[in-house]
């Protein structure tokens, strides 16, 4: 017996092992364009049920005393939409009302129609077509159930996506609030310290504007990366961009690709801005021969890896240590060390200012 390819099988499974009943039934069904398969025994009938069928046509003598355990199990295990119809051909007076054996078969088969012999061929065709119409409705019910399941699955997927979207939106709002608060705190600190240390209003205005622009450029880098982080080389390039007009050869940059978190990116950008401002006023960038070397490396032996960052000025005027540290130095040594959770040192060496950073890469 071959497996049918049609999932809505309309074939009739015929189990009538005695005489020519099976051949006659198959011929009558064939004339009515109802496909059929003749089963030699109960094992083939069971296999045919598993493979799919539109109805079962059985003779009473084929199943009266047989072990119908597998058939009973298959019928009981049908999905909710399925109730396969059976036609049972019995002898005269073989209906369940007068025949205990027929009553037993009715209990086992469930959806069964008893057809007493002899019968007219049109009667068999009519009963078979009625059974198939019922089977069609079952197939339609299955299709509707499948559509409902698919719709339920799509709805669950949409609800899950909406829930995730809402959670992500809440996370973004919380993160935005956190960043705004941090930025405002940074701006407040910059403004307070700048105004406190400036000697004139013009100096305060210029310093404040420069620092806020540096903060803005660092934000631009992170915004392009959706605030997921930034490449250190881009952070450095944006931070020194305002000073490249003095000659691109004044900056010598080298180091491997390193990805920084937003907090580290902002801290290093602000530190470079302060160092560059000081270098323009008093250090290497205040003379034509001066230059700044910016390099970094990553130590992968530790967990997490650590960033070794270095700013060193060369070729400028001789440097003398200041009598007191200004806001820029404090911003770098204190705030940068805190934000990076690492060590930051500024040395005023005669050849030029050197700033070193040792911090974990979060």
UniProtKB/TrEMBL annotation:
Enzyme class (EC, first level): transferase
EC number: 2.7.13.3
Keywords: ATP-binding, Kinase, Nucleotide-binding, Phosphoprotein, Transferase
Keyword Transmembrane helix in record: no
Domain of life: Bacteria
Keyword Thylakoid (UniProt): no
Gene3D superfamilies, alphabetized: Histidine kinase-like ATPase, C-terminal domain
Protein name in the entry: histidine kinase
Organism: Methylobacterium oxalidis
């Amino acid at each position: 017996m071959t497996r049918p390819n049609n999932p809505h099988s309309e074939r009739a499974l015929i189990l009538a092992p005695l005489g020519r009943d099976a051949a006659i039934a198959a011929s009558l069904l064939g004339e009515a364009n109802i496909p059929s398969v003749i089963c030699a025994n109960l094992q083939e009938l069971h296999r045919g049920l598993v493979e799919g069928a539109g109805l079962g046509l059985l003779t009473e003598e084929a199943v009266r005393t047989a072990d119908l355990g597998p058939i009973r199990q298959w019928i009981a295990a049908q999905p909710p939409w399925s109730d396969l119809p059976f036609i049972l051909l019995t002898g005269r007076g073989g209906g369940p009302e007068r025949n205990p054996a027929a009553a037993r078969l009715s209990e086992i088969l469930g959806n069964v129609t008893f057809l007493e012999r002899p019968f007219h061929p049109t009667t068999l065709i009519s009963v078979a077509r009625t059974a198939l119409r019922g089977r069609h409705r079952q197939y339609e019910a299955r299709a509707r159930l499948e559509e409902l399941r698919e719709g339920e699955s799509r709805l669950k997927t949409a609800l899950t996506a909406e829930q995730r979207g809402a959670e992500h939106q809440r996370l973004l709002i919380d993160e935005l609030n956190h960043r705004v608060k941090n930025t405002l705190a940074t701006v407040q600190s910059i403004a307070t310290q700048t105004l406190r240390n400036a000697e004139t209003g013009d100096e305060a205005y210029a310093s404040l504007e420069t620092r806020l622009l540096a903060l803005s450029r660092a934000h631009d880098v992170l915004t392009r990366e959706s605030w997921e982080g930034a490449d250190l080389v881009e952070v450095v390039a944006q931070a020194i961009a305002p000073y490249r007009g003095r000659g691109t050869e004044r900056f010598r940059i080298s180091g491997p690709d390193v990805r920084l978190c937003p907090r580290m990116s902002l801290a290093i950008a602000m530190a470079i801005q302060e160092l560059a401002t000081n270098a323009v006023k008093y250090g290497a960038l205040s003379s034509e021969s001066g230059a700044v070397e910016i390099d970094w490396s990553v130590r992968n032996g530790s967990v997490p890896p650590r960033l070794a960052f270095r700013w060193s000025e060369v070729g400028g005027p001789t440097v003398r240590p200041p009598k007191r540290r200004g806001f820029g130095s404090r911003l770098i040594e204190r705030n940068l060390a805190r934000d990076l959770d690492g060590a930051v040192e500024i040395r005023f060496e005669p050849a030029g200012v050197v700033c070193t950073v040792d911090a974990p890469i979060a």
